[in-house]
Structure formats: structure tokens, C-alpha cells
């Protein structure tokens, strides 16, 4: 069993390395004008491929899953996988020196794995223990590693060079991939993919009906969300609660020379100067 798991990890590591290598070398002739998305021609083709795969495989299965499984059952499945994620979030919070978050994530994992019956019931939320979602890409961003260019990975979808490069580490931190049997890993991985897609059905339907560039919208939404994930720590130390929630403001990973932060998102426009009240005379010019 251990040999099978080790072989699976080796194959996935090689696949991730191959994807990154191809993006860095084979796509050099397909550079786009957007500095945050220099591989846009390649990424658009890959996004079309992913949409085709989704339309014939994942979306129909997710739709059947949503229609056939009661809401309580779907919630239990989401809770189970969210509980597994809490353990990895605790590790990354420690690496980011966010010790309170690490303690809360580890407490959630312990409580939900026992009282919550392997995470099926979210007992920790009933105890008002906050949930934190952290991954190794966020950890690198916390310590100043830039996100790099936007990338669309086969099947996996939107990413950045930083997040794609740490994909093997993310797999190692995924408790599903530590299941002793290969069929268990495959079953749980497939169920998680279907559950995630089912949770996005309504959003994807709205996006399909909107008259906009779906690729550009998805890219901007992804980059802003990842920026907010990384900036959450910096804003919590000086950006205010609102900035922490919305991911606005420029933190330590900003580059004042180009006006962009290292995660590729544009900084917010400065607030306009307040208007003078009506009837108030203008100040006299200085002599």
C-alpha cells in the first residue's frame, strides 16, 4: 500500500513539475500584453478545454448529485472535507506565525473529528471557534514570495505560478492522499471534486448567463481572492477589519514602483477628497 501511495505522489510531483516547465518554456511564443497574464493565449485555450471537460463530465455529475442528495447530506459531505482542511490550515498558520489561528484550526479538527463524528457535524462552529482557510501558497505569500503570472492548469483551473509550484506540497498536506488504500483515495477525491462543483453550480450558471468575458472575469476574481487571502494577515495587523475582510489596501508585499502588489492585483483607487459644504466660502489665498 505504501509503495502505491509513494508511486502516486511521484507521478503527481512529476506531472506538476511538467506543467510548470511547459508553461515557462513551451509557451514563451504565446506571450500576451497583460503583465499579470503573459500567457493569456495559452490560458484561454486551456480554459476552453477545462470548460469542455466540465460540461461533459463534472457538471452533469454535480447536477445529479445536487438533485439526488438531500441538503443535509450534502452539508455533511462538505463538513467532512472541510474538517480535513482544518488540519492543513493549522500547519500553515503555524508556518505563518499566526498562532491563535493555528490553535483554533487545530481545535476545530480535534472537536469535529470526535464530537462531530469525523467532521460530519460542525460542532466547533456551535462553540464559536472561527474557521480559517490557509494553504502553502498563502504561506509563501505571507513571507513575500510573489504570486507570479496567472496560469490555467489542465482540469484544476485557475492558479498562479507560485500556487502551481507548491501543488505537490499541497497534495502531501492533503489527508485524503494519506489514506492507506488507493480505491479510498480515488473515491474520496472524486466525491470532493463533485461536492465542490455542486456548491458552485448556481454561481457558474449566473456567470454563463452574464454578457461578459468569462475568462477575464474568472481571472480577475481569482487574483483578487488570492490577494485577499494573503493580505488578510497584513491587514489584520494594521489594515483594519474592513480591509481584512475585503482584501483592500496595500501591504508588505506591495511594490511602490509599479503600484501593484506581489499577488498581481491592482491597488484600490484613492478616495476622492471630500466636497466642501454648500455655501462655505473658499479660503483666502496665502500672501
- Identify the overall geometry: globular
Widest beta sheet: strand line-up: 1-2
Helix share bin: 55-70%
User: How far apart are the termini?
Assistant: 86 Å
Taking all residues together, what is the mean pLDDT? 80
Main sheet overview: 2 strands, antiparallel
Rg computed from alpha carbons, rounded to a whole number of angstroms: 22 Å
Count of individual helical segments: 12
Word description of this protein:
The termini are far apart. With 287 residues, the protein is mostly helical. The protein is 60% helix and 4% strand. It has a domain at 2-67 and 146-166 and 197-261. The protein is built from twelve helices and four strands, in the order ααααααββααααααββ. Strands 1-2 form a two-stranded antiparallel ribbon. A two-stranded antiparallel ribbon has the order 3-4. A hairpin with a 4-residue loop joins strand 3 and strand 4.
Please sum up the structure shown.
The protein is mainly α and 287 residues long.
Secondary structure: elements and pairs:
Layout (H helix, E strand, L loop, with lengths): L1 H24 L14 H29 L2 H25 L3 H16 L8 H4 L9 H7 L7 E4 L3 E4 H5 L1 H6 L9 H18 L1 H9 L4 H23 L3 H7 L7 E2 L4 E2 L26
What are its keywords?
287 residues; mainly alpha; two-stranded antiparallel ribbon; 4% strand; globular
Amino acid at each position: 500500500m505504501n509503495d502505491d501511495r509513494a508511486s502516486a505522489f511521484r507521478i503527481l510531483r512529476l506531472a506538476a513539475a511538467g506543467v510548470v516547465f511547459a508553461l515557462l518554456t513551451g509557451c514563451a511564443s504565446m506571450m500576451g500584453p497583460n503583465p499579470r497574464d503573459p500567457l493569456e493565449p495559452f490560458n484561454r485555450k486551456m480554459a476552453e478545454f477545462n470548460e469542455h471537460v466540465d460540461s461533459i463530465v463534472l457538471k452533469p455529475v454535480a447536477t445529479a448529485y445536487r438533485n439526488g442528495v438531500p441538503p443535509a447530506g450534502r452539508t455533511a459531505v462538505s463538513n467532512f472535507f472541510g474538517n480535513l482542511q482544518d488540519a492543513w490550515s493549522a500547519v500553515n498558520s503555524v508556518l505563518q506565525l499566526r498562532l491563535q489561528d493555528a490553535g483554533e484550526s487545530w481545535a476545530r479538527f480535534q472537536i469535529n473529528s470526535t464530537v462531530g463524528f469525523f467532521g460530519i457535524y460542525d460542532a466547533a462552529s456551535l462553540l464559536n471557534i472561527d474557521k480559517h482557510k490557509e494553504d502553502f501558497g498563502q504561506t509563501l505569500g505571507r513571507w513575500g514570495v510573489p504570486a507570479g503570472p496567472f496560469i490555467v492548469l489542465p482540469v484544476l483551473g485557475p492558479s498562479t505560478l507560485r500556487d502551481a509550484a507548491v501543488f505537490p506540497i499541497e497534495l502531501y498536506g492533503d489527508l485524503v492522499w494519506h489514506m492507506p488504500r488507493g480505491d479510498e483515495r480515488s473515491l474520496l477525491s472524486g466525491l470532493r471534486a463533485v461536492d465542490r462543483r455542486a456548491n458552485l453550480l448556481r454561481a457558474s450558471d449566473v456567470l454563463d448567463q452574464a454578457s461578459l468575458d468569462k475568462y477575464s472575469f474568472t481571472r480577475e476574481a481569482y487574483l483578487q481572492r488570492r490577494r485577499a487571502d494573503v493580505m488578510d494577515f497584513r491587514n489584520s495587523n494594521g489594515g483594519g477589519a474592513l480591509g481584512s475582510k475585503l482584501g483592500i489596501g496595500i501591504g508588505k508585499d506591495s511594490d511602490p514602483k509599479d503600484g501593484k502588489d506581489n499577488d498581481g492585483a491592482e491597488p484600490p483607487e484613492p478616495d476622492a477628497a471630500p466636497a466642501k459644504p454648500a455655501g462655505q466660502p473658499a479660503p483666502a489665498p496665502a500672501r
